[in-house]
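It is worth pausing here to work through a concrete case rather than discussing structure prediction in the abstract. The textbook approach is simple: state the sequence, then state the predicted structure, then interpret. We follow exactly that order.
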Amino acid sequence: MKKTIFTLFIALITLAAKAQEEPKKSEVGLNLNAKIGFAKLIQNEMVNLNGSINSGDLLFFYRLPSGTSFSTGIGMMDFNANGVSAGESYALQQTYLRIPLYLNYSLTILEKQLDSKLSTYGGIGIYANSLMKEEIQTVDETFKNKNQGWNAGLGFNLGVRFGVSENINFGIGFESQSDFTKMKKNGAERKMEEINTVNFSFEFKF
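Step two, the predicted structure:
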């Protein structure tokens, strides 16, 4: 009887050791992402404009063993729209410089079936935003402006990430952002709202 109990005890210890995950380590890496979507531009003394978004970020991240990660870097965003002012049609193109800071949390799913390669993520972020250049084109002429000020915004994101190798991940997700302050310069006040994008990401861990 004692021998049987001892054998069972050893077997349980062995199974527990096999079931236990290897300790996770902190990760440092680079994240490149491309975004496409739509947004709304709100300006004083003008109608709201709905337009398309093309954007991209270059981010450095630090991920804790718990799955919590911090990332920051630099991004560029183009906004394109068409409008009418004083009976005349015009095309608007704006280019923004963005400096984001994200706090995300990731969770591995289907660990046994996919060998811990699939994870979900979600989080929030804030960003500083500058309108670097603006071009307004009409039938007769083109107006150009540069350095139209700074403002700030807030957003959230969620998505899935798949590991194709030990150091490389690909991901797809959704992000929603809105400026919470107005950009003011030369009497103009503006901000972007309802910035909704689909994100495609490439992640490389050092």
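Step three, interpretation. Residues 15-22 have pLDDT under 50 and may be disordered. The beta strands are 27-43, 49-63, 68-85, 88-108, 118-137, 142-146, 150-163, 168-179, 183-185, 188-205.
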